Amino acid sequence: MATLDDGHIHTLSSELPAMFDGVKLAAVATVLYVIVRCLNLKSTTASPEVSYQNTPLSRYLLKACPLLTKEYIPPLLWGKSGHLQTALYGKMGRVNTPTPCGVRKFLPMQDGATASFDLFEALGEHSTGDDITMVICPGIGNHSEKNYIRTFVDHSQRQGYRCAVLNHLGALPNVELTSPRMFTYGCTWEFAAMVNYIKRTLPDTLLVVVGFSLGGNIVCKFLGENRSNQDRVLCCASVCQGYSALRAQETFLQWDQCRRLYNFVLADNMKKLILSHRNSLLSMNSSNIGDAEFSKLIAATSLMQIDDSIMRKFHGYDSVKEYYEKESCVHYIHKVTVPLLLVNSSDDPLIHQSLLSIPRTLSEKMPNVIFALTQHGGHLGFFEGDVLFPQPLTWIDKFIVQYTDAICHWEKNRPDCQRSSQQDTNSCLQSTGAKLSG
């Protein structure tokens, strides 16, 4: 039987501490490597990638909106991770959230539904002296009480904007449905009702249209559905939307960037929201949602399964493909002629890179479109800060208001000309550009 002599034992015992030190060092190095990779610490900060046509308006906006060309700096330790930006937004929305004071309005719809929105008056005069109302559409299942909406509204109010925020049908807690349907991916009925109410009751106000995530799809679709929807609209800003649900459905089932996990979480939240209205939906005689649909809903693990079993049936679509095709703004957005700002983030884990070709191509073909793509920001995050703690006001809050201010001043200084004629409009743009540059 082989044995170790005293020399070998002595040598081995003297090497053990060094071996343990090496293992510790390797473990620390591995953890640091994972942290650096996960937090994307080696990534450099940069100004947004801006795509646009060379027009008097775009040249003016590049000067009037410093945030278009200024470096966006997220919090150093975690802000370069799109996942953490998205998770932080999803968990708390914003930090030190203000509580703006508004009035809730209820609007009866033709199909028996009751739309609602909150109206917040401006906290001062706008810099142009004009009466301007922001009409805001939140993200999926969101409403005016969400922290990111409250923060944006408070900032906009302080800059002289009245704000009207749509509460998605069925999204407000403890508010029962009055018809057998909820909000869907691209239904513009409730948003149209809010906008028409504002136009009717405030005949002198001008409108700024803002949409976040799913809300971005709704507002762009709304403006493109009918030319009259753009009357009295100064501009539109869409943030972190995917433009085409049909093209996005396959990417949302992939594990790349953990999209499948996000899909599951969003589906679970959506499932809980729908189930909270189960009794209302089942008790209405005109409902085409029954126990069989709810059984499928309970078993669903993705948004597409929920859309197929429940959401498409609110409007009578025969298939989920038809639902996605008809409800996506990609078929309407090219009809929007007012200044249009499209904002996305490269590290948004919910929006696949292939979808960004839609706004990029649009900005290259349409003179009224500017596409701003940030390197960091996640999905509706866009937090700013020095090292660890984010600032209460985010980059996107400031950017939308800055862009809107610039458009308002541009319109204020435009010559009085016929805007219905493209030739006259181009002449106006050239004249206005020279006036503002001077």
UniProtKB/TrEMBL annotation:
| Name this protein carries in UniProt | Monoacylglycerol lipase ABHD2
- An example of a Gene Ontology BP annotation on this entry? sperm capacitation
For the AB hydrolase-1 domain, which residue ranges apply? 133-386
Q: Where is the composition biased (Polar residues)?
A: 418-438
Record InterPro entries: AB_hydrolase_1, AB_hydrolase_4_CS, AB_hydrolase_4_sf, AB_hydrolase_fold, ABHD4
Location relative to the cell: Cell membrane
Q: What class of enzyme is it?
A: hydrolase
Question: Which residues does the Swiss-Prot or TrEMBL record annotate as the active site?
Answer: 213, 348, 379
**Stretches for region Disordered:** 417-438
Q: What is its main location?
A: membrane
The protein's UniProt keywords, in alphabetical order, are: Cell membrane, Glycoprotein, Hydrolase, Lipid degradation, Lipid metabolism, Membrane, Serine esterase, Signal-anchor, Transmembrane, Transmembrane helix
**Primary role:** Progesterone-dependent acylglycerol lipase that catalyzes hydrolysis of endocannabinoid arachidonoylglycerol (AG) from cell membrane. Acts as a progesterone receptor: progesterone-binding activates the acylglycerol lipase activity, mediating degradation of 1-arachidonoylglycerol (1AG) and 2-arachidonoylglycerol (2AG) to glycerol and arachidonic acid (AA). Also displays an ester hydrolase activity against acetyl ester, butanoate ester and hexadecanoate ester.
Q: Does the keyword Calcium apply?
A: no
Taxonomically, the superkingdom here is Eukaryota
